[in-house]
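A student in our group prepared the protein record below, which I am reviewing. This is what I was given:
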Amino acid sequence: MADNAKAFFHAKSDAGKAPEANEPHARAAFSVASEGDASDRGLQTMFEFDPAADSLKWSDEDAAARIFGVERDHVAATRNAFSACIKGDEDEARAAAFAGDRQSYSCEYQLKRDGVDGHWVEERGGWIGAGQNRRLISVIRSIESRKRRDEQLSWLAVNDELTGHLNRTHLRKTLDAKIAEMISAGRNGAYLMVGIDDIGAVNSDFGFEAADKVIAEVGLRLASVLGPDDRIGRVAGTKFGIIIADTDADHMRQICVRLMNVVRESVIETKGGAVAASVCLGAVSLPQQADTSNNAMTRAEAALDAAKRIGKSSWSAFTDKTDVVSMRRRNTHMSDVILTALNERRVRLAFQPIVSDLDETPKKFECLIRMRGDDGQNIPAPEFIPAAERLGLVHLLDRRVLELALNTLSVIPNIHLNVNISMETVKDFVWAEGYIALLRAHQDLARRITVELTETQVIDSIDASIEFVSEIKRLGCCFGIDDFGAGYTSFRNLKAMDIDILKIDGSFVTGVSSSRENQLFVRTLLDLARNFGMQTVAEWVDNEADAMLLKGLGVDFLQGFLIGKPETNPDWLPEGAPNEAPQRAERRQS
């Protein structure tokens, strides 16, 4: 290789020195090439392009061969041979750089490989030297694993991991859109809630793996008889939601019968043995009986409760009477579920990382509440949190989340945890005092806790919020407002509450790199936060483009699926949040 290229390699070992005038682009390329996960870093190489000879020289031909998916002797030796391996059109910046019209470039693309889809790589480079010694030095590295991870995270944001069907959030969005279409076009449809019968018995007799197999197979069978415009999603551990795009009352009855029959037509083979599955269904007509997704889901579940009272493999259509009876029954049932889960220590924390930079090892996490049912399945928070608020049990959940967070801080030094609290606890003097007393008893740990309230909650009871925030900050806690931007908090209230952290509402963060309106809004919030001396967190960050833009705008912290999903058993806490404080556990053993 030419002396310029050798100088580039030398730059790697002299990273602490001031860069020479002819190597800034090469240094930047190597810096970026070292990012990513371990498998990516292990597959990278560098090439030198000589424009006079139209030749490419590779620093590591073996690595280049692996990246291109060819034998070593067939690695591209000219610019045209290299470009011919790129899937699709060549990046404009790359083409301009090779033509000598651009000093440096950075791009991502896929390399064509025989028999498989393109292999994703990142290429960064720039020109060094002058005259006859002028060379284009570039680093190329595999980013296939990152691309696959991004694709998986994007897929999981929309779909349920076990069944592959839509998750609850996106089924709800789809349901709202379908209802709007029906109203606009004057059509009728239906929303069905499907519950698998006796899945708890399957767990008990055959094991959790068999139960998962039953859930996944039931989902496949239900989907197999739906029309092309119908949609299915998993809305809870053992429940599916189905949107029927075009139907009337008679046809809805036929569909329900067909769905029940397709599930029970044959047994489901699992490793534990054959399982004869069946389902119950609740149906609500759209849009006559429900013109929003919330009404449709609530009333379909009420009809499902009525069907279950009839017996296995039954279905029921929603009526006003059904709703009244079902709501009372669900409240009673959910009260038992929440209290039992608390008593049996089945309330857990899931930790989602918050970082200041993408390559940072997380030391800050938000604690999200999780609850397992007695059948071992997770109960989605949207099912039990609203019920807990209606039933006056949310105080107990807030207290338990704080206990688990303090237990975690006791055993894991040098981390900071964010915990959410409901306004019901803040407004209730007895429960607020109990919450503060628990922090006071662990004041050494309270300094590593940020307590969060949503903006809309703060607005609803500003005086109670100010008093509560004042008390916890005396103990060393930080205070943050969650979902900021969703409400209309005044400047006076922001100043009065002495806020440390503003968490920007995720609806303004998602897709911010391609939305000028969201960019303007985020800039405005950041200016506001800086003027009040507050730090900022961007939630729902799910792609690198949004993350880079947000950091460029001045956001202090990032949170979202790009950074990491919530985990109940992260690597740094494999057993999950301790159910008891360490000192209590030690006294019991002695």
